[in-house]
């Protein structure tokens, strides 16, 4: 007698949900009660229920009640207070090295420019910026723009798009001309999880600074910036940190580099004495020098609720669930999608995988459109890739199975 694989997966999903120590946190998310399947928490996280009240209270009590006094009372310190908390809970960063600032793109620009200027000032031969050919577009575009602006040279690392930059590839790309290396901790396309400690060491052995893009790892994969000896990092807060659409990014600058780095957008909020309104820009000490204009206070509010949740759950337990979710998704995919011609475009080894997996099939663009119309929300990435993002705090195993069964039906319909 053969066992129906769907019934077996359903039983497995029930057992995994029942044993999941983080299962209770799912109810904290708005919309988690609906049958909608959300596979895009790695792109825009769901809001927490408490966030609606927190934002409303902020508007009436803090903004409406304190008005401009709010700046002195707490808002000026918010970028540093929340940055330090994020650093402590999810980035392995001691206080005084993380700030919430502008968009990821703008913070990457500032830190890349600062790092290039510092390295090439101390050694004029260092004129190369190393970046992966398959890194997120903004990262590649920034590197090209900065190279054109500063007369630097781009060194591209060619990568297998089902993986990312590994130690051998980086070793072959860096050398005495390298100023700065820009790397993704988790590849936006394949979900490949880089060995950040080893890659950081390789960049340092070549005399370069390294800037990590943590967009797809912050809040889902444990990060140890201080212990790994990282120089610089930037990451999004609207993915696993549920800060809301367009919530500002964070920047990390290791304490040992702060006084030597100056960023190119010299605004009053990064000046030594913000309210002296002096004739010339003098960068502030510490992380304030990486700010430019008025901090986006409202947009920083929501991520604090996720930090409360991470504090409760612990980043190690979050990673354990993330690995269990992606491993389950791969078992289901092998069972019901592989027979339909779907292949895996992500690493199989969980130690090399972040919080999302990409499934490949020629029909995936049409499959994505069909799924969205029926409230199953993954996203599509060329070539032929369906990205399944499994935010560990807001996704259940049952939801994962329901969504992958819908993928199977859609692939059948579109093939
Ligand atoms: C890996 C990565 N880097 C950079 C960015 C750019 O972020 P932003 O649009 O907030 O500037 C994103 C956005 O999704 C991303 O996924």
TrEMBL record:
Record Pfam families: Aminotran_5
Reaction catalyzed: 3-hydroxy-L-kynurenine + H2O = 3-hydroxyanthranilate + L-alanine + H(+); L-kynurenine + H2O = anthranilate + L-alanine + H(+)
Signal peptide: none
Cofactors: pyridoxal 5'-phosphate
Top-rank EC class of the record's enzyme: hydrolase
Subunit structure: Homodimer.
Similarity comment text for this entry: Belongs to the kynureninase family.
Name under which the protein is recorded: Kynureninase
UniProt source species: Microbacterium mcarthurae
